[in-house]
Amino acid sequence: MDNNAVNVIVVIGAGSIGQAIARRVSADKHILLSDINGENCRAAAKILSEAGFAVSHTIVDISSRESVHELVEKGCAIGNITGLIHAAGVSPSQASPSTILKVDLYGTALILEEFGNVIEYGGSGVVIASQSGHRLQALTAEQDKELATTPVEQLLSLPMLQPDQVKDSLHAYQLAKRANALRVMAEAVKWGKRGARINTISPGIIITPLAKDELDGPRGEGYRRMIAVSAAGRAGTPDEVGTVAALLMSEAGAFITGSDFLMDGGVTAAYWYGALAPESK
């Protein structure tokens, strides 16, 4: 580590959650903001810059190894990569099962591997998963291990991820988000050898443009019911996710790595043990 170099926080996904986390952990650091949508990325960079942060921005396609590797190189060219905020992805209403698996599952595994090779000693990261991963039925121990440890370029070839096994976008999303948490647990071992930490946050319904797509989409009625019967009785905010992420990425969270933090206002609790529980349970 070059003690004279700039410390860099790489943010993947220029949306509300990525920005909220970046604001809490990037004081006196350089933010490298990336997104697949250049216009959104530029707009978010402008907001952060006007709030007093040092910001660069670039386009990234997280489903492409070449693109993710270029992002790593850009970060390293600026300084020491000491933080990673991965908040990019697609939702069930936005994409096909194959695209969800390519972006949310493969893309996340790729990011963890590429940034795990360069994260600095004392560095930390958070991956934004989803409450959906907690509503998937239990997998076998072998399936868990496959999702956690299969080499990145072989992941999408797993039998459990083939089209005859994953037939709808919601199932693909649940699998991807379960895989995110499993992958982070396994990668935490590798990151630990570099003196760095990595954790997952699994938010529930957080009011963002993506969530609004879901609320206005074919699953909107179900989403509104989730909110109504949850213990909190409301949706969450990006700032609340930012608060949890700030703990995980700070010295106050130095004993936390390889963990997944479910923050959904009690929706998952209602799904397994309350008003949302399937009648078959």
Describe this structure in words.
The chain has 281 residues and is an alpha/beta fold. The chain has a single domain, classed as Rossmann fold, CATH 3.40.50. It is built from 10 helices and 7 strands. It has helices spanning 16-25, 38-50, 65-78, 97-116, 141-149, 169-192, 209-216, 220-229, 238-249, 267-273, and strands spanning 6-12, 30-35, 54-59, 79-86, 124-128, 197-203, 260-263. Strands 3-2-1-4-5-6-7 form a 7-stranded parallel β-sheet, with helices on both faces. α1 crosses α9 (238-249), α4 packs parallel to α6 and α7 crosses α8. The longest helix has 24 residues, at 169-192. The mean pLDDT is 95.
How would you summarize this macromolecular structure in one to three sentences?
With 281 residues, the chain is of the alpha/beta class. The protein is 45% helix and 15% strand. A seven-stranded parallel beta sheet has the order 3-2-1-4-5-6-7, with helices on both faces.
Topology of this protein?
Elements (H helix, E strand, L loop, with lengths): L5 E7 L3 H10 L4 E6 L2 H13 L3 E6 L5 H14 E8 L10 H20 L7 E5 L12 H9 L19 H24 L4 E7 L5 H8 L3 H10 L8 H12 L10 E4 L3 H7 L8
Parallel strand pairs: 1-2, 1-4, 2-3, 4-5, 5-6, 6-7
